Amino acid sequence: MRVNRRTSTMVAGAAIAALTLGACSGSSNGGGGSSGGGGSNDEVEVFTWWAAGSEKAGLDALVGAFEEQHPDIEFVNGAVAGGAGSAAKDLLQSRLQASDPPDTFQAHAGMELLDYINAAQIEDVSALYDEFDLREAFPSDLIDLLTRDGQIYSIPSNVHRANVMWSNSAVLEENGIDPNPSYASLDEWFEDLDALQDAGVTPLSVATAWTQVHLLETILLADLGPDAYTGLWNGSTDWEGADVTAALEDFERAMSYTNDDRDGLDWPEATQMVIDGNAAFNVMGDWAVAAFEEQGQELGTDFAAVPVPGTDGVFDFLADSFTLPTGAPNPEGSRAWLETVASLEGQTAFSVAKGSIPARVDADPADFSEYQQTAMESYGQDTIVSSLAHGAAVPVSQLNAITDATSRFTSGAADLSTFQSELAAATATS
């Protein structure tokens, strides 16, 4: 896998892009997590939000690689469940402020790390890049994106694509729609969504607030194109402009095709609606591929996975990575975990299970599914932009404000004009 050299469209988050890895699953290990004051030298508390579906499968695979590489160090599960990590992030911030950090924690690539960096809550891990020979294992462009003021603050475990549209081939075919659809524009897609809605089929499944922000970013990308989309985050695109208004109108239209119970669901349930034939389409990152594959679904036969209409040739980028918190109780345990995260074995095991692709250039495409091979190819040649919903494009505080504004809009508590103004205000803060 090689990284696209056309990185001029990478968002402001690219300047910071310290990729951060998603987290673990399940309840806390019986040994208990390390808490403030120091823990045992033969254990490592890994704080994540991976608790279900392909995320849990990915974590379990990574833990398996860790236990093979470091059998003398006990993995302690510090997972906190919750869609997109909202609950985990709140608890993590409380622990960091109380000087009670885990040994390592997950965060998404990009601007999501800025608050931790500014608060001196995570340490430079550049020395580990030299120790683990990562400057050769990772593409130079990726190293550049990870570097802030000459320092690197996390080690990426993978790369994900956000702008993927999933569909149930049988549902489409039953309604006279190409079972392997390809749309040049949102308008073309909306025509088929209208037909599905008229036929009594749920056209588009979504879930709780963060999945609606995920849909929003792909609509913005489709309508604005990669340069203007990137401009939303670096200040060169006017949030109050007519082009943005039109994109928000398309988002409003897209939401009109969605399921009424969306706010009570998380992404696995929305994806499952497509797998079960209870919805035709879903827009979700490519971690969703594992949900299809583990249920015996075949790409091109049972389901399709293509770029969101209007975004072909663009790779909406996010990634998971792990950090070294300041004052980590067991820095040697942290180092051991980061070594596995960076290793070919760890990255391969993790991505095979999670549906992502490795950040390393020496991964063998033959080890991965058909979808993942297409993602590797796209990542190497498409224009790359940074995901809003997944920490690459804006700091956490801005994302929270955008999410709140989106929830007010999709619940009917704010009109489109107010929504647009609130988005402009959210991105004007630092």
TrEMBL record:
Leader sequence residues: 1-30
Coiled coil: none
Cross-referenced SUPFAM superfamilies: Periplasmic binding protein-like II
Keywords, comma-separated and alphabetical: Signal, Transport
Stated family: Belongs to the bacterial solute-binding protein 1 family.
Protein name, entry field: ABC transporter substrate-binding protein
